[in-house]
Amino acid sequence: xxxxxxxxxxxxxxxxxxxxxxxxxxxxxxxxxxxxxxxxxxxxxxxxxxxxxxxxxxxxxxxxxxxxxxxxxxxxxxxxxxxxxxxxxxxxxxxxxxxxxxxxxxxxxxxxxxxxxxxxxxxxxxxxxxxxxxxxxxxxxxxxxxxxxxxxxxxxxxxxxxxxxxxxxxxxxxxxxxxxxxxxxxxxxxxxxxxxxxxxxxxxxxxxxxxxxxxxxxxxxxxxxxxxxxxxxxxxxxxxxxxxxxxxxxxxxxxxxxxxxxxxxxxxxxxxxxxxxxxxxxxxxxxxxxxxxxxxxxxxxxxxxxxxxxxxxxxxxxxxxxxxxxxxxxxxxxxxxxx
Length: 339
Ligand SMILES: NC(=O)C1=CN([C@@H]2O[C@H](COP(=O)(O)OP(=O)(O)OC[C@H]3O[C@@H](n4cnc5c(N)ncnc54)[C@H](OP(=O)(O)O)[C@@H]3O)[C@@H](O)[C@H]2O)C=CC1
Ligand SMILES: O=C(CO)COP(=O)(O)O
Fold this sequence. Notes:
By secondary structure, the chain is of the alpha/beta class. It contains 15 helices and eight strands. The model has no long low-confidence stretch (mean pLDDT about 95). The chain binds NADPH dihydro-nicotinamide-adenine-dinucleotide phosphate and 1,3-dihydroxyacetonephosphate.
């Protein structure tokens, strides 16, 4: 009993801990693995994750664990919540330790660094075809989820039984509403592209533009995301849900979003390094902008907001010039799908 769990979470940062708190609060024994033994020691001693979610108590059913083998042996349900740039690395570490009946779900939002591949492709390459896979995506700030504030999220995967079991584990009538979705690609893509658009919204607000500009960025960001999604085989309707419109509105409008705060700092004149340092946690959109931009170019998909965010982050363009360029684009029809 001591070393068994209903689910194991890999990644003891803000979101991994928030999801583990949520699962344990639902009455499920939840093991939370982190790669830094000292950090895990602190979780055990403090009964909270002071580094990432200060002041929020860890439920008794949440068991911090520093040994990856122990964590993976404890349960067949494995929820990966590490940043996208170490997603492949962590899966490679996990692979020899997985159980035969392991099932893998991730809440990581992003694409593989450099290649821009979806995380499902990384998972398949590392783990082969035998393990059921799933993804969680949607508008969920870790702090609110951990505090038990009402939240809704979407889930999709390769195996209907796994998806159903995950809904059972995560769903809570009081705190967390979980929507099953059948668009595995769309949910992954929504979580990656919204990071880029949130940086764009932050840039716009940082420059001093107002609600009109922010809302236009959200709306046209949704159009870009949908275009890219359709080119990759996702369903357009997915992007009107939690993982599209939902996450865009959340991260483009609220300063809990690190991507938005990163954009804000740049719009106010900080350089990339200083802005990242100021935030001190993962800013997925920084890397993801390059990957989404490259992916869009490869597929011939027009993504003007992503293109301008890319120019600011990687080509030294000033945020004001990027905004001017977006505004001075040729006239378009809003209703034509090609525009
Ligand atoms: N926070 C949020 O509100 C939400 C986050 N997400 C997504 O969840 C993912 C994780 O983000 P989040 O928890 O917020 O990030 P944080 O920056 O809060 O935490 C990241 C955690 O990952 C750990 N980590 C880094 N490298 C490794 C590694 N090689 N092996 C194991 N662990 C590692 C970090 O450890 P260390 O501190 O030692 O580097 C840290 O504990 C991201 O893809 C993010 O987009 C999705 C929805 C909401
Ligand atoms: O994904 C998130 C909310 O859904 C968290 O957003 P940030 O990574 O921008 O903080």
